[in-house]
What does this fold into?
Amino acid sequence: MLAKKDFLLDPNVIFLNHGSFGATPHLLHRVYQEWQDRLERQPVLFFREAPSLLRSARAALASYVGCDANELVYVVNSTYGVNVGVHALHLEPGDEVLTTDHEYGACEHAWKFYHEDRGVRLVRQHIPIPVPSKAELEEIIWAGVTERTKVLFLSHITSPTGIVLPVEGLIRRARERGILTFIDGSHVPGHLDLDLHALGADIYTANCHKWMCTPKGSAFLYVRKELEQIMDPLVVSWGWNGYPWKGATIDPRFATGSYLTDTHEFLGTRDLAAFLTVPAALTWMKEQNWPEVQRKARELRAYGVRALCTIPNVHPLFTQEADDVLQMGMVLLPEVDTDALKERLYDDHAIEVVVHRWLDRPILRFSVHAHTEQHDIDALVRALSTELEIRRSSLL
It folds into this structure.
């Protein structure tokens, strides 16, 4: 059974923030270093073999997420993947991109950077806190669709609030209306089951370095085959070379038969080790009986939400439904200085956890993974109770 000792995490810190950047086990970190060592021993040979190595790594990941190997390409993180997709879409003045007000800020910046000056409108549907039911969420989001809606851009799991958005139904409805669907799945691989072909999104990007526990810098961008020819790269390098579909010929060393992989995979000299570690991570997950790892983590998350909500004036984020599939727990706090509380939890109690304000509501988000134990949650409950009691006493 996995435990904290199997990870590189500081044993002196109660780490309840896996959701932000992930955590890598010793075993996968060694595989990662072995790839780096192989690169440095013979760089010329390594990059000669790189197309074949990446092809195998893509095939392994594609099998896991339910698509073809040439429909995805490795990127360093999902924010980069969002930038690739946003940059490639050709929208016209007056077009609308429908999203929510629970999206990751960096991705909103990408939409504004590439399209705001062109007269493209970003429509942010409001999701109230506490969060309503899934059925209500779908209708709230879909109510933002107009005749000008060209893109539906949503998080599969929202980062600031840990909501599993009803993307399946919304993707089906968007397809019927001819609206392109672009999903940010940053928190999904290794966290929820994912079958990209069954899901039906046009573009999907996600991190492996969060819940799959791979080294930092391993993520992917998926593009439905029918759309790959519009997906021009952010960085033009050898894989483009005046691509045949663009009117010239490609260097045969980089030809995969996919415009997406040909043009996005070979971006000059860079470290490929994090990408190449993904197949080992998939093997490791299988060896650890990943469904059982997830089951225990979800039970611990549910325990954590219940325990935290025994503290006066701490309440669940959800009004009707708990996201039992998640390994992140969210609670609403009483009015408090969130930055100061986060600092005190770390400085005075050695607890790393998310405490922030979203839509002017103070929220605590904790993450549970294979390295988390019940005493970690109990420590958080005691620390939060102490800090909130100090706050209440100071107000008397």
Q: What stands out?
A: The chain has two domains: 27-284, 289-395.
